[in-house]
Amino acid sequence: MAGGGDELKLLGMFASPFALRVKLALSFKGLSFEYVEEDLRNKSELLVVANPVHRKVPVLIHNGLPVCESMVIVQYLDEAFPGAGAPFLPSDPYDRAVARFWASYIDEKLFSAWVALFAAKTEEEKAEGTKQTLAAAETLEGALRECSKGKPFFGGDAIGYVDVALGGFAAYVHAFEEVHGLRQFDAARTPLLAAWLARFVELDSAKAVMPDVGRLVERGKMMQAQAAAATAATAAAKAS
Amino acid sequence: MATVEEEKAGMVLLDFWVSPFGQRCRIALAEKGLQYEYREEDLVNSKSELLLRSNPVHKKIPVLLHHGRPVCESLVILDYLDEAFPDTPQLLPAPAYARARARFWADYVDKKVYECGSRLWKLKGELQAQARAEMVEILGTLEAELGEKDWFGGDSFGLVDVALAPFTAWFYSYEKYGEFSVDKVCPTLAAWARRCGERDSVAKHLTPPEKVYAFIDVLKKKYGVE
């Protein structure tokens, strides 16, 4: 439970993997918070004031003070709530550097590969996006092997910084498979990641905050249809 | 050439002369008074075996080797230097909230400055005009964050200052390609840049602006830009 007098408010969006990271972090630390669902097409005054630079979710507001950027928030929670369970980052400086490196990799390479695949219009773009996605998953499989040292999570026996970073995508990965027909963490290609994912989504603290995959699939299919319609409209306009 | 023993002990920085990301590390090491061996990587022709082995994922500099173990990504290196050397001047302040703010702004510099600057010299016409408008906005946003303070870190030269300082050497090039004046568009930030240049750690490690400008010509040829 949050300490006396600590007010935590999270501005998020149900489909945002970055907002989910923060929900997971709060849940794993047993911190209670008020959740505000943002309509990103019609951003609230609160969001715009709390994150004037990016106007994005997630934003964690702690006793009125905003913290932005998902992994900055996760580190902040470690530092501002030292009594709330074990910290996500390990204590050794080198291990911390390794954890930060992989969290950065997940954002820069893994997520951007998925975005490229999602945005792919031509068969060529799709093939390239698929190639990048599979390569990134393979690299991350190596990272899990290295970091876990045979234990269940990147953080070892308990959930760590990289587990939270990747955990934000746990529901998204299932939805992506249904919408695009590609399994990112396939048991044959990436056995450790497949096992990690199955294990992660079963954790009580994860279950408590995971979004409904069905709802994500619905949204993903709708966005896919919209993108296809836009492409068709552009093609039609060019042809006429 | 370092011996295997030298490689394993102490610190080695794999870097590239003009890289602003590498310069962040050089500045931080200087601010902390830490000794290290600087190794220039030939990124144009061939990356060293040591670099490829130390950063197999990205194959990029900077890489800091400490007792033979590699730390990659410049901001990760800066955090590491604070944490591995707690008795040296710290780049991050103590309070959790101030740390979160510093990390946010270091991330902002990382996401925005180099990428927008690259578009400024790579692109033409409307896309270049867009890059120019964005660069002016980015500099303005940074200026607003700096406010009345001497440094982004407040009274002390901190993480955000170190993250941004190397890019002051690129301002001249941004001005030429963007056809604007940093002094006019963000005078407070321009004054901060001059203050940075007066620090030994920065003065010793920044590339002279005209050399950065000449280097961009090399990059343009490499990318086939007119």
Key words describing this protein structure:
heterodimer, A: 240 residues, alpha+beta, four-stranded mixed β-sheet, 4 strands, globular, B: 226 residues, 12 helices, 8% strand, transferase (chain B), EC 2.5.1.18 (chain B), glutathione transferase activity (chain B), Glutathione_S-Trfase_N (chain B), Omega/Tau-like (chain B)
Summary?
Chain B: It catalyses: RX + glutathione = an S-substituted glutathione + a halide anion + H(+). Chain A is of the alpha+beta class and 240 residues long.
Strand order of the largest sheet of chain A: 2-1-3-4
What is the arithmetic mean of pLDDT of chain B? 95
**Average pLDDT over all residues of chain A:** 93
Largest sheet composition of chain B: 4 strands, mixed
* Residues in helices of chain A, as a percent range: 55-70%
How much strand content do the residues of chain A show? 5-15%
Percent range for helical residues of chain B? Answer: 55-70%
Question: Which structural class best describes the helix and strand composition of chain B?
Answer: alpha+beta
Q: For the record, give the distance between the C-alpha atoms at the N and C termini of chain B, rounded to a whole number.
A: 39 Å
Quaternary structure type: heterodimer
Helix/strand/pairing class of chain A, anyone?
alpha+beta
Q: Kindly provide the radius of gyration of chain B, computed on alpha-carbon positions and rounded to a whole number of angstroms.
A: 18 Å
* SSE order of chain A: EHEHEEHHHHHHHH
| Widest sheet: strand ordering of chain B | 2-1-3-4
Count the strands of chain B?
4
Q: Helix segment count of chain A?
A: 10
Low-pLDDT sequence parts of chain A: none
Relative strand content of chain B: 5-15%
